Amino acid sequence: MKRIFMSVIAVAFAILALHACKTSQAGINPVSALQGEWNIIEINGESLVPAEHQPFPYIGFNPEDRRVYGSSGCNRIMGGYMLGSRNKISFGQMGVTMMMCPDMAVEQKVLDMLAQVKSFKFENDNILFYGKGSKPIAVLGIKPQIENLAPVAGVWEIEKINSEPVNVDPRPFIELNVDEKKITGNAGCNRMVGNILAKKDVVRSIEFSNIAVTRMACPNLELEGKVLKTLSEVYTYSLTPDGKKMILLDEAGLEIMQLNKNIVED
Known about the structure:
Blueprint: H1 2-26, H2 30-33, E1 36-43, E2 46-47, E3 58-62, E4 67-71, E5 76-83, E6 89-91, E7 95-96, H3 105-116, E8 119-123, E9 126-130, E10 136-142, E11 154-161, E12 164-165, E13 173-177, E14 182-186, E15 191-197, E16 207-213, H4 222-232, E17 236-239, E18 245-249, E19 255-261
Antiparallel strand pairs: 1-2, 1-3, 1-10, 3-4, 4-5, 5-6, 5-7, 8-9, 9-10, 11-12, 11-13, 11-19, 13-14, 14-15, 15-16, 17-18, 18-19
């Protein structure tokens, strides 16, 4: 009898949990939830890595007139979208500027993906786009906003990781483009690209997210692994008075990376 009673309770909790989940999803207003700018970080399960000096692809939603805008990774894009029941979404014919870039592969992937989108859903802090199948064809992450990061813009060589000198030539480096909210560089073997985020309520805040790397095979990937892991733990920064050395710290305030500014002389 006790087992039957416990089974009934378990079933009841499961039903309540399912109802709560449906109620939570039903309570989302897709029009307002889509508002803002979203980086396109994956297409068909592969991380997007734009070519050097090309912008990260993103899409922005303007719910007032059901218009979208953004970047395909090379050209600016603009168009309209339609919402239906059960998170159905489709994009009309997208307008694209006609600039030529060294690498057009990412742009083509983005445009092909947008033409296939049939529906979407929210998962954690991301948007998942779906086509005809059950697997997402794209993952989008909120495009971070930048506040007061001009002093850290530029190219920085990684001198130390967790107090250990980086004794390789050339050294891995990062380049911070605060206007585009983008980190690029070389992790020791592969090129990397990701987003920069600064929290308004944290002094000297800087974080790196959605870092993707190329997949070139190298004899020793240990250093690259350390670089990527350390960058994912960054929470704040400090600069020397002359602005030529930057210290990156984790959330506990511990120094985890030291970098020197690479100043190019004319």
